Amino acid sequence: MSTVPADWSEKSSRPVIAPVSLGEAFWVWLRIAALSFGGPTGQIAVMHRILVDEKRWIGEHRFLHALNYCMLLPGPEAQQLATYIGWLMHRTRGGIIAGGLFVLPGMLSIMALSWVYVLFGEVGIVTGLFFGLKCAVLAVVLQAVIRIGGRALKNSIMRGIAAAAFVLIFFFDVPFPAIIFAAGLIGYFGGRSGKSAFQVGGGHAAAKGEIVHDADTLLGEELPAHAHPTPGAALSQAVWWLLLWLAPVAALFVLLGPRNVFTDIATFFSKMATVTFGGAYAVLAYVAQQAVEHYHWLTAREMLDGLGMAETTPGPLIMVLQFVGFLGAYRQPGLLAPLLAGTLGGLLATWVTFLPCFLWIFLGAPFIERMRGNKALSGALSAITAAVVGVVLNLAVWFAIHTLFREVRPLHAGVLDFDVPVFASIDIVALLLSLGAILAVFRFKVGMIPALAATSVAGILLHLVGAFA
Fold first, then answer.
1. What does the pLDDT look like over 31-44, one tens digit per residue?
2. Of 19, 158, 229, 425, whose Cβ has the fewest other Cβ atoms within 10 Å?
């Protein structure tokens, strides 16, 4: 794609920008997918740099408006944002290519690492590597709390929503969807009332530098022709994507019954896809409650291992759910070979997690494009983002308890329901390695990938010298 400075429209001051073919867009989206490390914050920054600053396909305001909508949806906002922009550029085919490519590298990477994990996880060096990864994950999640909180908690109302969310989910085990729904309602009516406290912007900061205005980009300011939905087109999109999503779930329920592990994976992750608002870290808080404590597909420490995999591979951080589905089916293979069952379980989890994302975008984006600047929508986003800060803080505390202590006991006292570490069981090696990772990330500004790599190497070396069993 290129601009043509010598050719200016007589009716507009913006340069004429050469059209982008679907083939050219394919390679750009593949490049974005290959560079999409670092969780949703890093992935959105990569998209912003390439699509807004470099290619100028879309302007700052339109990019943030699309992100605001994706932040309000359940599921991975970075993958949904890619799908949204792909749809804006090249209709449904463009959205499928953009969203599908965004998932592909992470799906292949996590599947390969899942095989390594179950085949060689008990090998000492592999154990040491994942031990180091778990310790660094604490620093990564804390960094997410601070980054999101720094942008979202601009006033006392937002800080109060975040604090309430943390207390409700950590101490009272209030379901995550209920917290997000309540925060969205508060934000919606607060924004509708015009209170400035609820107009604090989207969930992610834009890149610093000169703002790229919508009028100076390929898409411009006007609505594309396909952003004028008809009831028939909306119904067609809904039926098509619902069939792709739910037909396999119904088939498993009928053929295998309600108590089969594949049926459980399909129904659990389908439900999760409709209720997990607030981004990848918030999703993990909900999965940790259910997959670890209810279904017993994996342990808390294995959940940390999976998060370490997802942090060090390209693609959505939520791809850790493929690892969860893999382990769940691997340990309950039925008549199948364990590796085959695990592979199918992981792919099934991925399918029912990401298919709904295309439904939300293709059904809702045409309407949302016509709502740019809506104060009530912005207020709901602001409050949900604030609540997510509290939920992610809960995730950080949960990870810390299960990483730094060898023994954890549940406490049930009236309405209180939370985990309490046995302080005598503290793991000194894990504590020191976690503190080192936190110091590297926050004091010396070491990047996420180098920090994860360093703690992984440290874990291997500590194993070789016999520092932990």
1. 888 877 656 766 77
2. 19
Structure tokens at 250: 């119904």
The number of beta carbons lying within 10 Å of the beta carbon of residue 450 is 12
Distances (CA, A) of 69 to 73, 91, 223, 257, 310: 7, 18, 16, 37, 24
- The dihedral region occupied by 361, where left means phi > 0, alpha psi between -120 and 50, and beta the remainder, is alpha
Q: Is 222 left (phi over 0), alpha (psi -120 to 50) or beta?
A: beta
What span, in angstroms and rounded, lies between the C-alpha atoms of 380 and 378?
5
Give the model's pLDDT for residue 372: 67
Query: At 407, phi and psi to the nearest 5?
Result: -135, 130
Q: What is the Cα–Cα distance from 373 to 65, expressed in whole angstroms?
A: 8
Closest CA to 391 of 53, 149, 203, 229: 149
Reference 245, options 268, 260, 266, 231; nearest CA is 266
pLDDT at 107: 95
Whole-Å CA distances, 59 to 66, 172, 215 = 11, 43, 7
pLDDT at 14: 43
Cα R_g (the chain), whole angstroms: 22
Closest by CA position to 48, among listed 30, 27, 67:
67
Q: Which residues pair with 409 in a beta bridge?
A: 420
Dist. CA 401–CA 123, nearest whole Å:
25
pLDDT at 182: 92
Neighbours of 289 (CB within 10 A): 16
Taking the CA atoms of residue 67, residue 71, residue 73 and residue 79 in that order, the dihedral angle to the nearest 10 degrees is 60
Q: What is the mean pLDDT of residues 440-447?
A: 86
204 contacts 151 by C-beta, under 8 angstroms: yes
The predicted model scores a pTM of 0.72
User: In the numeric block, which tokens belong to residue 392?
Assistant: 């992610």
419 backbone dihedrals φ, ψ, rounded to 5°? -85, 140
Closest C-alpha to 148, from 326, 296, 336, 282: 282
Residues 203, 73: contact at Cβ < 8 Å? Answer: no
Q: What H or E segment, with its residue span, contains residue 361? A: helix 338-368
pLDDT tens column, 51-75: 988 899 998 878 877 877 887 788 8
Q: Which of 222-236, 343-357, 396-410, 448-462 has the highest mean pLDDT?
A: 343-357
224: DSSP letter: P
Question: Which residues fall within 8 angstroms of residue 137, CB to CB, at 6 or more apart?
Answer: 304, 307, 308, 311, 399, 403, 452
Distance separating the N- and C-terminal Cα atoms of the chain: 56
